[in-house]
Amino acid sequence: MTNDVLWLVRLGLDQGLFSRKHATAVRSEVGNDADIGTFAQRLVDAGYVEDVDTLEKIAGLAMNKGQKGPPSGDPFDDSGTEPPFAHTAAAAKVEAETKKSSAGPAPKFPFDTIGLLDGAALASAFRGLLRQTSDFGASDLHLSTGSRPFIRKSRALTFLSDYVLTADDALRLNTALLSDGQKKIFLDRKDYDCALALSGTDRYRVNLMFHKGGAAGSYRMVPDKVPSLSNLGFSAHLETIKKLLSYHNGLILITGPVGSGKTTTLAAMVDYLNSTRTDHIITVEDPIEVVQPAKGCNVTQREVGQHTKTFASALKGALREDPDVIIIGELRDLETIEMAITASETGHLVIGTMHTSDAATTLNRVLDVFPPGQLPQIRASVAESLRGIVCQRLLPDTKGGLTLACEILINNVAIQNLIREGKSQGLRNTMETGVREGMCLMDNVVLSLWQDRSITAETALANITNRVLRAKIS
HSE-up of 45 (CA within 13 Å, CB side)? Predict the structure, then answer.
């Protein structure tokens, strides 16, 4: 075999992308003289590899390494250790369970000695607390006046100490890592959002505020690596989402309640576009959470407050900055929504998030912000520009973690007519008949999760509204 094919097999086995048995079967079919392209294509055609994007990346790396010589040892030799898992949904679940079991110890911090620490010592200790919280696998850390410090992990709250933070404790702790300028803004405005970076991989989304007792802070852990769409739980809907992301214009909406993983999904979509296209991507965020280094695309990330005054002003400027893709952290108001629709109509792919629970509610929220006199025009614009809506929730699973449930709307002629006519109540029936196009309803997805024993009956009943489906559970 050629050096680059040997490297492809070595890297693929190391990544768990396919098994040695699969590689050997392909070698017997294509022969020892096959080039890397033929070998890789046969892996896909035979169904041995599902993650084609990762295979393409590995193939590029294998060609570079192959120019310098073969890998040490024959990757086809079965005397070595076989990679434990094939690259399947089951493997991803096992890998996630392994990571969960290897989480670090619960965070510890001497909250009762805050008053004894000087500024530098407090800042150093607080950095350690944030890193411990992240290593433990928690999603959020909360430090509030008059309350015990607590974290959130897999939706459950856990107190870190019995010590109740005083007003002075909470203020000193929540401002320990702020610059003088940031601290002044917080004290003046009484509200402050920012991204906190302790290093290239330690990033946190921070919200600071004052309440009746004093200062409070919420710290959201930002993953150090952008997960793939498959790892997030979209495996069954991957082709539908990839089709949405293949468009070069139109509007895609990612929606869900607070804490449903919208930001992570958005980051995974940007990473997919960044890896598969050669475009100019502009993101507008508040604040910048996940840093997206340029791969195939040039990625320009702007933060509201630091780089631009508002989402709307950034969008207005983006139209003059030659973008191909515009990412909007949150569609909050009429001006931002109107600019997003305009951008999607003028040859740009626009992806934004909203705090809505299903497709029908999302469309109503988009349309209801406009004055009644504009509605006919806006309905026509949305009907033409909308590509799809992805609504998601994170549900507690039976293993103590979280699992994704989603609802997907794909715009077609029937959906367009319902939007133009303002008949959002008909969306549900149309989506049920659009399964072949990749559509799915949240109720059906939740029922499937219960049937697969991924979630409990109680969780399923709490997230299904259809009486017929509820009857199947109860």
Answer: 10
Assess whether pLDDT exceeds 60 at residue 93: no
Question: What does the pLDDT look like over 112-131, one tens digit per residue?
Answer: 999 999 999 999 999 999 99
| Extents of the domains making up the chain | 3-87, 111-222, 229-440
Burial of 409 by CB count in 10 Å (0-12 exposed, 13-18 middle, 19+ buried)? buried
The band of 245, judged by pLDDT with boundaries at 50, 70 and 90, is: very high
Q: Looking at the predicted structure, is the pLDDT value of residue 446 above 80?
A: yes
DSSP label at 230? I
Alpha-carbon distance of 387 to 379, in angstroms, equals: 14
Instruction: Report d(CA 332, CA 285) in Å as an integer.
Output: 12
Classify burial at 127, counting beta carbons within 10 Å of its beta carbon; exposed 0-12, middle 13-18, buried 19 or more: middle
Selected from 3.60.15.10, 3.30.450.90, 3.30.230.70, 3.40.47.10, the CATH number assigned to the domain covering 111-222 reads 3.30.450.90
CATH architecture of 229-440: 3-Layer(aba) Sandwich (3.40)
Q: How far is CA 266 from CA 194, 210, 228, in A?
A: 18, 30, 11
